[in-house]
């Protein structure tokens, strides 16, 4: 049974980068467990965000773990640089490389937590031969590329499927859910088996972001206690 305390990871994609130091300090003070940093290349996804330089500069602002989600083609070309820039968890997309097994092993070799993400159209079963190599499975609950999209309910079934396999073969591995997470679904995501909840717009676009984060924290803890 999974008894870990779920983590909440505000997604900086939705933050105001003109005031990024304040935005990070705000979510850190409100209890964020880690920060989610989305790198997009305009090829794997239609949007473009930031690279290693930004990660390296942000690293100086906080000791919170950095969860770097690479929505890029050929992620193997860049993971070492993201690690050197300060990434703690590096998550690449199953759909973005022909060699996910090799890349997962490499991530552990360079001292990163090895994360792998699956798009809404990718079945959980595609991870079957990788399970023991993974530290974190990221189940996308929107199609990657943009913040503020609607949550795809089917993702919860996928979280349950992944949790069932992990319980048998790799119980230390975490499950992260990313996209459209907010008060309407965060408890259900925890009950399905999620350990890490990424929240972009539901935190940074809220009228009172610290209050929104604290409410999520409270609901997440209640949901985990009830599912024990
Ligand atoms: O990876 C992505 C989007 O592709 C996410 O990390 C978003 O940043 C989540 O934002 P919200 O859906 O929570 O607003």
TrEMBL record:
One of its GO terms (biological process) is pentose catabolic process. GO terms for cellular component: cytoplasm. Keywords: Carbohydrate metabolism, Cobalt, Isomerase, Manganese, Metal-binding, Zinc. It comes from the Bacteria. The keyword Nuclease does not apply. One of its GO terms (molecular function) is metal ion binding. PROSITE patterns: RIBUL_P_3_EPIMER_2. A divalent metal cation binds at residues 36, 38, 69, 178. Gene3D superfamilies: Aldolase class I. Its cofactor is Mn(2+); Fe(2+); Co(2+); Zn(2+). InterPro entries: Aldolase_TIM (IPR013785), Ribul_P_3_epim (IPR026019), Ribul_P_3_epim-like (IPR000056), RibuloseP-bd_barrel (IPR011060). Its EC number is 5.1.3.1. It holds the Pfam family Ribul_P_3_epim. Substrate binds at residues 11, 69, 145-148, 178-180. Catalyzes the reversible epimerization of D-ribulose 5-phosphate to D-xylulose 5-phosphate. This is Ribulose-phosphate 3-epimerase. It comes from Vulcanimicrobium alpinum. The gene is rpe.
């Amino acid at each position: 049974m999974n008894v870990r305390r779920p983590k909440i990871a505000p997604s900086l994609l939705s933050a105001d980068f003109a005031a990024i130091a304040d935005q990070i300090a705000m979510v850190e003070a409100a209890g964020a467990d880690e920060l989610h940093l989305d790198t997009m290349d305009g090829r794997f996804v239609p949007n473009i965000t930031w690279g290693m330089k930004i990660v390296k500069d942000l690293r100086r602002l906080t000791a919170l773990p950095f969860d770097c989600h690479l929505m890029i083609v050929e992620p193997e070309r860049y993971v070492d640089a993201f690690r050197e820039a300060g990434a703690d968890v590096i998550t690449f997309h199953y759909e973005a490389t022909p060699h996910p097994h090799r890349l997962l092993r490499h991530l552990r070799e360079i001292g990163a937590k090895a994360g792998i993400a699956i798009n809404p159209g990718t079945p959980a079963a595609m991870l079957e031969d990788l399970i023991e190599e993974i530290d974190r499975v990221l189940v996308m609950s929107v199609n990657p590329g943009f913040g503020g999209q609607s949550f795809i309910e089917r993702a919860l079934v996928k979280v349950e499927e992944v949790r069932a396999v992990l319980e048998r073969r790799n119980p230390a591995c975490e499950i992260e859910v990313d996209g459209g997470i907010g008060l309407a679904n965060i408890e259900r995501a925890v009950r399905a088996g999620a350990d890490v909840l990424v929240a972009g717009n539901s935190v940074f676009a809220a009228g009172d972001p610290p209050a929104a984060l604290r409410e999520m924290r409270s609901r997440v803890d209640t949901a985990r206690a009830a599912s024990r």
